[in-house]
Amino acid sequence: MSQPSAFARRIVSSAVLAATLGLSGCFGLAVTGAAIGTVAVLDRRSIGAQTEDETIELRGARVLNESVNKDPMASVSITSFNRRALLTGQVPTEEMRAQAEEIVRTRVPNIKDIYNEVEIKPVEDFAASARDSSLTARVKAGLVRERNVTASAIKVVTERNVVYLMGVVTHEEGQRAAIVASQVSGVSKVVTLFEYVTDAELSRILGTDRPENQKGQGK
C-alpha cells in the first residue's frame, strides 16, 4: 500500500479539521471575507508577518516536494508562525532529516528559526493523519473555551499524537494553553514553541497602551 504524500496528507487533514470543528459547533458560521478579516485583526502577528508566513509555507512545501518528499518513504511538512518554521513528518534516515532542514534554511528566505521535529520513522498513513487532525481540532476547541487563553494567537500542529503549540503569548497564557492541550484525550505529548512577551509588550502589540484606548480605565 502506497503512503500518502505530504500534500495529500494536508488535504485530508484540512477536511477532517473542518468536519470536526463543524460537528463540535465551535464554528457554526460560514467562513466569509469579513470573518477572515476579523481573524487577521485578532492575530498578534503583523500583517507583514502573516503574509510572510504564508509565503514561507508555500515556498517551503514546494522545495520539500522537489527534494526529500520525492522519496516515497519521506513526508515532511512545514508550518510557519512569525517567521519561525516548524518541520514535522517522517523520513527514513538522519541524513534526510538534516537535508530537509538545510534545504528550507537555504532556499526559503525570511525564516528566523527552524524547529526540526522530523522523526526517523515510517510515514504516517491516512488513518493516522486523520487522528492527528481530530486532535488538532479538539485542542483548538479547548483553547477557545479557555477564558485565560486567546485561541486566535496560537497555532496548533499535531504529528503522531504529539501537539506543537506556536504563537505570541505571555508566560501565563503559554502555560495555560499547554495544560489545556495536555488534557485532550489522545494527546501523548505537548511541545511549546512559543514566542514569549511580557504584559507590557503584549499591550503594545494589541495597541491597548495607547491613550485613546485607555479612556474610561481607572474609574
TrEMBL record:
Instruction: Say which domain of life the source belongs to.
Output: Bacteria
- Looking at the record, the residues that make up the BON domain are 52-122, 131-201
Recorded coiled-coil stretches: none
Q: Which UniProt keywords apply?
A: Signal
Cross-referenced Pfam families, in alphabetical order?
BON
- Kindly give the PROSITE patterns that the UniProt entry links to this protein: BON (PS50914)
Entry protein name: Phospholipid-binding domain protein
Origin species, per record, is Lautropia mirabilis ATCC 51599
